[in-house]
C-alpha cells in the first residue's frame, strides 16, 4: 500500500502544485490589475485637478463678466440720464428762443404799423392802390409771357430758322 500511498500523494502533490501555480498566476494577474487600477486612479486624480482648475478659471471669468455687465448697465443708466437732461435743456432753450423771436417779430410788426401811421396818417387807400398796381403788373407779366409763347409757336410753325440756315 505504500506504493499506492505514494501514488496518491504524488497525485495530490501534482494537484496541489497545479492549484498553487494557478493561484500564483491569479495573484500575478491581480497584481497587474492593481497596478493598472492604481494608474487609472492617478490619471483620474490628475483629470479631477484639471477640472477643478478649469472650474475655478470659469468662475473667475463669470464673476468678471457679471462685474463688467453691472458696470455697463450703470454706465447706460448714467448716459440715459445725461441725454434726458440735455434733451430737456435743449427743448427749454428752443422754446425760449422761439418765444424771443416771436416777441421780437411782433414788436417789429407794431413798430412798422406805427411808422406807417406816422408817415402816412391820411392814406387809408394807399394799400388798395398798391395792390391794384401789383395786380396791373401781374396782368402785364402774363400778357408778355403769352406773347412770347405765341411767337415761339408761330416761329416753330413757319420754320423760318430752318429756311435761313439751309
What does this structure look like?
It contains 3 helices and no strands. The protein is mainly alpha-helical and 166 residues long. It folds into 2 domains: 2-121; 124-166. It is elongated.
Q: Would you spell out the secondary-structure blueprint of this structure?
A:
Blueprint: H1 2-119, H2 126-158, H3 160-164
> Treating each run of at least 4 consecutive H or I residues as one helix, how many helices?
3
**What is the arithmetic mean of pLDDT?**
85
Taking all Cα atoms into account, the compactness measure Rg is 58 Å
Distance linking N and C termini = 161 Å
| pLDDT < 50 runs, ≥5 residues | none
Number of strands: 0
Query: What string, H for helix and E for strand, traces the elements in order?
Result: HHH
Strand content: under 5%
Task: Return the domain count.
Answer: 2
What is the SS-derived class? Answer: mainly alpha
Helical fraction equals: over 70%
Most strands sheet: none
| Shape estimate | elongated
In short:
The protein is 94% helix and 0% strand.
Observed structural traits:
mainly alpha; 166 residues; 3 helices; elongated; 2 domains; single chain
